[in-house]
Amino acid sequence: MSDWPDRRILELFGIENPILLAPMAGFGTPALASAVAEAGGLGALASATITPEQARADIAAYRALTAKPLNLNFFCHRPPQPDPARDAAWRARLAPYYRDLGLDPDMPLSASSREPFNDAFLAVVEALRPEIVSFHFGLPARRLLDRVRATGAKVISSATTVAEARFLEAEGCDAIIAQGAEAGGHRGMFLTEDVASQVGTFALVPQVVDAVGVPVIAAGGIADARGVVAALALGASAVQIGTAFLFAPEAKVAPPHRRALDRTAADETAITNVFTGRPARGVVNRLMRDVGPLSADAPAFPLAGGAVAPLRAATEPQGSGDFMPLWSGQAARLARPMPAGDLVRMLAAEAVARLG
Amino acid sequence: MSDWPDRRILELFGIENPILLAPMAGFGTPALASAVAEAGGLGALASATITPEQARADIAAYRALTAKPLNLNFFCHRPPQPDPARDAAWRARLAPYYRDLGLDPDMPLSASSREPFNDAFLAVVEALRPEIVSFHFGLPARRLLDRVRATGAKVISSATTVAEARFLEAEGCDAIIAQGAEAGGHRGMFLTEDVASQVGTFALVPQVVDAVGVPVIAAGGIADARGVVAALALGASAVQIGTAFLFAPEAKVAPPHRRALDRTAADETAITNVFTGRPARGVVNRLMRDVGPLSADAPAFPLAGGAVAPLRAATEPQGSGDFMPLWSGQAARLARPMPAGDLVRMLAAEAVARLG
Fold first, then answer.
1. Measuring CA to CA, which of A96, A300, A343, B188 is 20 to 30 A from B69?
2. How many CA atoms lie within 13 A of A45 on its CB side?
3. CB distance B202 to B229 below 8 Å
4. What is the side-by-side order of every strand in the sheet holding B185-186?
5. In angstroms, rounded to a whole number, what is the distance separating the alpha carbons of residues A343 and A36?
6. pLDDT exceeds 90 at position A210
């Protein structure tokens, strides 16, 4: 596995293959991450949907399974200002579904729980020392970031535009993920809110490579060895893959989500804000079709999710994916179901053979 | 120039380099097309914005400049049904701009003139025998298509989804352009109207390659040798390049358009329907920002253009690009201004060296 032409990311992270598992908050597991790591890729664990205590447990599970480096991922959005009028408009928009499902449209809601990086998570980083710390939605406050760096962790984050890439480099990121519009899940966008001008992987990667000096990791639409080779041709030093790993048995994917992934064509996904308030790509389903895909009524991230949660809770047990996010990139059809380690090894072997 | 690994498109079209000039109705010229052809690429002339007589003249000019094959391009939309209510709504939407510019919002309008392929254009094909005939927005009626094929022309068209690619192959296309969402100008979409689910080049190309047996030409976001090599890695047999050729001196680009191209970042374009009624990617300008980028008020293609034309006519002479389409893909920043033939030779030499 030493035949990769660009070794910058391999040396930066101490890995053998330039293949990063996307953290995929809510879908990744220590088993998935460690399988990727043992196969020479970079394993990742996400913290956005769990507590610091759960993060500690996940890291311990990962460390028990592998001695390889770990990428620990955090969201770093600013918690939104309360906006009762917008919340009320959103509940009114969703009220017909509540009534259809026999739910009280005025029922009390749990707060949607996506925690940004904070002191409690910093304590996890300082105690458990992930080799790489990645952020989504920009970077945390300087005070927190400096302390992450002081642990010796390499720091990376996602850029969806050249301006975001330049910002991340200026703030000291060791590498930058160029997240093309094909990518599944949340857009990392943080200097723009304009979904219409988001850039495809093919155009974004070389322009980010030209704009920054640090190594670039291509993400979005990469699911097979052709994509790995093409990303390197565009100037990337590595790739980050998400959706293709959702087909691995180690991923935690709810049955309606798995069925959607199995049958979805590339043009059946869209970028939507109806599940969380931030733009994210998923398989088009009933809520996206009716209310979105982009709705001006959706409260700020992560609050939009609060009023959607009861609809999901009432329908998912019947096997319905109507009201749950079915995150997927545009290359799901290229994925082949297999254990995650086998996928890393296959991608690496096929890519090296093509590059050879 | 014989070192290309995949020779299918080279043999199909009788060219030396797998680089197609995008036809670019309104911006291409016989000089541009012949320069590309003489350098071993495939030259193209567009007919969508001109009369059959002008097309004959352009072809004669091309043939006088080169003996290489020619790709003659046509739009093949269905002429829209009259819809006076929608026309009136569109005029009302644009009326404030008319008043700001001292124009009468009720002034008579010229019909927007984008002619679909028809008997008059068929007569041009039958008389002047372009070696390749390409269509945008699907394919023309079977009767017309059969007669095009009877001339011996190879027939190609653009797909923006896997379903469109399968349709085009079933209808007998000799090759298929996989037009990713990064591409500038009009989306070739014809089995869907949903812009939100359009697919990026990186995800679209390999899925089209997997779905059809004919060779695939990648388009969208390709402007340098990295893109050529990456497109081939994804399984394409050739590339089609548009925006990068707008920087060549042989292209016919109005001054406000050229200035926009010179300064535009990848994330300053969007897909809009405000100029023609069909989705097309261009640099975001005043009309797109105010009215779109996508407006439900815009009349069907090509009628939306009728009411925009006086606004352009009143502002472009002052150097303003506020009301004119500034078509551009997302990779304009990668383009290097040079004569078109030099660009083809440079792309080919650099790509072959990288593939080497």
1. B188
2. 28
3. no
4. B185-186, B280-283, B269-272
5. 8
6. yes
Mutate to test the interface with A, among B267, B283, B291, B354 (most CBs of A within 10 A): B267
A with B: how many residue pairs have Cβ under 8 Å apart?
160
Tokens of B193: 């109207």
A134-147 as b/e: b if 16+ CB within 10 A = bbbbbbbeeebbeb
Q: Cα B136 to chain center, whole Å?
A: 8
pLDDT tens, B285-326? 999 999 999 999 999 999 999 999 999 999 999 999 999 999
Residue numbers in A near B198 (CB within 8 A): 267
B280 CA: distance to closest CA in chain A (Å)? 12
Q: Residue A73: which H helix or E strand, with range?
A: strand A70-75
Nearest to B293 among A196, A221, A235 (CB): A196
**Pairing label, strands B43-46, A175-179:** unpaired
Chain B residues inside the 8 Å CB shell of A236: none
Q: Which CATH architecture has domain A8-77+114-252+332-355?
A: Alpha-Beta Barrel (3.20)
Q: Give A-chain residues touching B196 at CB under 8 angstroms.
A: 270-271, 293-294
pLDDT in tens, B181-211: 999 999 999 999 999 999 999 999 999 999 9
In the prediction, which pLDDT does B233 show?
98
Distance from C-alpha of A30 to C-alpha of A142, rounded to nearest angstrom: 29
Domain ranges of chain A: 8-77+114-252+332-355, 86-113+265-325
> Distance between CA atoms of B115 and B302, rounded to whole angstroms?
9
Q: Assess whether pLDDT exceeds 60 at residue B2.
A: no
Whether pTM exceeds 0.95: yes
Q: Residue A203 is nearest to which of B198, B221, B270, comparing CB atoms? A: B221
Q: pLDDT per residue over B6-39, tens digit each?
A: 999 999 999 999 999 999 999 999 999 999 999 9
Contact list in A for residue B224 (CB cut-off 8 A) is 206
Q: How much of chain B is in helix, strand and coil states, percent to nearest 5?
A: 45, 15, 45
CB contact under 8 A, B182 and A197: no
Q: Pull the structure tokens for residue A108.
A: 């009390």
Q: What is the pLDDT of residues B75-100, one digit of tens each?
A: 999 989 989 999 999 999 999 999 99
Percent of chain A surpassing pLDDT 90: 96
Per-residue pLDDT at A2: 55
- Give contacts of B235 with chain A, Cβ < 8 Å: 226
Two structure tokens written together for A188: 């990392």
Superfamily of domain B8-77+114-253+329-355: Aldolase class I (3.20.20.70)
Asked if residues B156 and B177 have their Cβ atoms less than 8 Å apart, the reply is yes
